[in-house]
Amino acid sequence: MQNCELVDVLTQPDWVIAIGRVAIGLGEYGYRCWVFTPDFTVLDDGEVHPSREAAAESARRLVMDSREY
Known about the structure:
The chain is of the alpha+beta class. It is built from 1 helix and 4 strands.
């Protein structure tokens, strides 16, 4: 597993988004996202994003796609 530094925690009603910075090369970093659902399931997209904003947007899409209507 990669070393990860937590850089952001975002919330939406009943949902939590975590953004972490991971090393992808010598002195190079990318960002991963995880979504914690209301039933405490953890989701991630498996991608390394170029910015924390891109990771956050991907996490928001995971939330929207996972919500039950």
